[in-house]
Amino acid sequence: MTIDWIAADWGTTNLRLWAMSGRSPVEARSSDQGMASLTPDQFADVLAQATDGWPAVPVIACGMVGSRQGWVEAPYAAVPCPATPRMVAVPGDPGGRPVRIVCGIRQDAPADVMRGEETQIAGLLALDPDFDGIACLPGTHTKWVRISAGEICNFKSFMTGEIFGLLAEQSVLRHSVGTGTCDPAVFRGAVSDAMARPERGYAGLFQLRAESLLADLDPATARARLSGTLIGWELAAARPWWLGCDVTIIGAPALSALYAEALTAQGLAPARMSVADATLAGLAAAHRQFLQG
Amino acid sequence: MTIDWIAADWGTTNLRLWAMSGRSPVEARSSDQGMASLTPDQFADVLAQATDGWPAVPVIACGMVGSRQGWVEAPYAAVPCPATPRMVAVPGDPGGRPVRIVCGIRQDAPADVMRGEETQIAGLLALDPDFDGIACLPGTHTKWVRISAGEICNFKSFMTGEIFGLLAEQSVLRHSVGTGTCDPAVFRGAVSDAMARPERGYAGLFQLRAESLLADLDPATARARLSGTLIGWELAAARPWWLGCDVTIIGAPALSALYAEALTAQGLAPARMSVADATLAGLAAAHRQFLQG
């Protein structure tokens, strides 16, 4: 298969690359040379090294590489806007390759931003052109995105993933919260409690530590309760984004499974799509856009 | 004034010492040799060096020095219990000084623990023997403590201080949340919103970052909103601990002022006491207890 373009998901902490033949990946590479570890003058060299041996074909990149602190700022498009990717060019075709960076999306009221997820949404619509409903993209900053008639109508971000990481790994709860999978029944109970009475969930956080000290609370149970509490708060706050809606979850498998579990308990039947599939389909849509000039 | 005992507040990250003459401090010292930086065999030497030049008088210590990871474990007393301090002896009178460590307090249902705050409560009762009401001790892990007839009846901990620190200093909000004082009106508004609809406050966290990116949100305003949201959640969850109660706040000045502001907006007239006054009074009560054998 001929490599005719390169797909790049260039985020804060990682760079993932695929040599592409049309819509099919031929070879994948990844490194930890994310945006946050680079100064603007280093991106061209990093890309050249990371694509060594691949032909001088166009590169389509998404993610924080297009932020103000990245390589070239790709200004936010404002909602409502077509889900079709917009791009900016990196000046000078570095390494002899045209490089395009997908623009993030902004919402002015209430203020919100995304950068990277817009590509996954373009991918969702490339794979399912008639999609009309809500995309839920769980991650460090989970996004709920309303999509209709091929447009991104509006969206809402939550810090659930980042807060979970801080509490589970850096707070006093790190001594009490284990790794591994969550017990589904414990998780669902915590989701339900947090949705019904969010303030009770807040009261229950230090209690995880105390139960661990006084009653040998199982670390896996503590993890399920912490995760369920945070996702329950998010579902309570995001109710207009899922109640009576068709929801497709696009995220990493374990985290997507938790959101699916929580939404199913609310009577929904969410669909699932992998991040890699959505990202590649979105970058391929951007590449077709690039070819059309 | 004759130094007849030594008061020690030996916490996770700091050691504070006072050479005492009865209830009066003669000299104060402090260092960063907190419990977390020491192995059990180092405490005696650290105490000897930190009290160099002071006479070989009894030492009364409170705080995490008495935890399982500390010098000598001072087992928790269980509520309900007298507010009068209980102590354990460090074996062998290190450095020729009898050393006593004040015991923490536990509550089995719902599970909760304190270690250090019990000494401040003993101090509150030493300074105001008829106190009957709620002590609110804001800090890394804020405690609400019900006190009646000289006893600690029950208590409730919240992670507000620790969560604020993690969000303001380590999350994506660190770019948007400033230092300095909080605007009282913004703070009160955020408290009120979070109390009325806790899930809305959750939805507002990432919005601080987005408003900062898109609308140049003032970092001091972002700080007031974040602080008000977390304290609002706490007040919503702690309602039974303050509604219709006499509340005395014992904490650092800036943080105590925020809790006072929030409670005053709920129609309360909270009293205030400094941490140092309460701690020293509590350790002095423990010292009198020690003298009585």
Task: List strands and helices in order, with pairings.
The structure is a homodimer of 293-residue chains.
Chain A: E1 5-10, E2 15-21, E3 24-31, H1 43-50, E4 59-62, E5 77-78, E6 81-82, E7 87-89, E8 99-102, E9 105-108, E10 111-114, H2 117-127, E11 133-137, E12 142-148, E13 151-158, H3 160-169, H4 184-196, H5 198-215, H6 219-237, H7 239-242, E14 247-251, H8 253-265, E15 271-274, H9 275-291
Parallel strand pairs in A: 1-4, 4-8, 5-9, 11-14, 14-15
Antiparallel strand pairs in A: 1-2, 2-3, 6-13, 7-8, 9-10, 11-12, 12-13
Core attributes:
alpha/beta; 293 residues; globular; transferase (chains A, B); Nucleotidyltransferase, domain 5; homodimer; six-stranded mixed beta sheet; 15 strands; 2 domains
What does this protein structure show overall?
The structure is a homodimer of 293-residue chains. Chain A is an alpha/beta fold. In chain A, 39% of the residues lie in helices and 25% in strands. The first copy, chain A, has nine helices and 15 strands. In chain A, the strands form three sheets. Chain A has a six-stranded mixed sheet with strand order 3-2-1-4-8-7, with helices on one face. Chain A has a six-stranded mixed sheet with strand order 6-13-12-11-14-15, sandwiched between helices. In chain A, helix 2 packs across helix 9 and helix 5 packs antiparallel against helix 6. The model of chain A has no long low-confidence stretch (mean pLDDT 96). At the A-B interface, strand 9, strand 10, strand 13, helix 3 and helix 5 of A face strand 9, strand 10, strand 13, helix 3 and helix 5 of B.
